[in-house]
Amino acid sequence: MTFRDPRPTYVYVVEAMCGLVKIGHSIDPASRVTTICQHSASPVRLIAMWPGTLADETDLHRLHANLRSHNEWFRLEHGLAAFVDRVRGIGVDRVPDWPEVMVLPTLERRERKSARIKAAAKKRAESRIIRALVQEHTS
Fold first, then answer.
1. Residues 77 and 108 occupy one common structural domain
2. Shared domain check, 101 and 75
3. Lowest-pLDDT range, 40-44, 78-82, 110-114, 135-139?
4. Domain check: are 20 and 75 in the same one?
5. 33, 36, 65, 81: least buried by Cβ within 10 Å?
């Protein structure tokens, strides 16, 4: 017997600054976009999402197969461009402008790097203290 997750699922469209769009399917599109951002060489943004099934996603993939770049990424041309224009903004509060998409991850990376540097410095200081205590105890 196959377990079927009872949560609703969505079809989503992610736009990459390089001119490609990804048509996907997920329980949590916003979280999925975060993952895509971490693995994409080009800035991306969620531009639409609506309740849908894996079959709906597959239908869209088949319909636009001639525009497939790779995997679930498609060139934004012809009928797909018209479709994306029609669905843009559906199911999302707003589609962020490209400067917002590019700046926020940079700030987040800087904050994470700063936190890692502080944590490493704290760990080194704690190690020095522990070594000194051990040395004092064994002397």
1. no
2. no
3. 110-114
4. yes
5. 65
Query: What total of structural domains would you count in the chain?
Result: 2
Q: Which two tokens stand for residue 19?
A: 């001119």
User: Do 72 and 19 belong together in one domain?
Assistant: yes
| CA separation for the pair 125, 119 (Å, rounded) | 10
Give me the mean pLDDT over the 20-39 stretch.
Answer: 93
**Model confidence pTM above 0.90:** no
End-to-end CA separation in angstroms for the chain: 65
CA distances from 100 to 7, 78, 133 (A): 31, 27, 49
Is residue 116's pLDDT more than 90? no
What confidence score (pLDDT) does residue 104 get? 59
Domain span including residue 68: 1-96
List the beta strands (DSSP E) in 27-130: 44-51, 68-70, 73-75
The mean pLDDT of the chain is 86
Cα–Cα dist 57/12, whole Å: 8
Question: What was the pLDDT predicted at 91?
Answer: 95
Residues 34 and 72 placed together within one structural domain of the fold: yes
Whether residue 70 is found in the same domain as residue 129: no
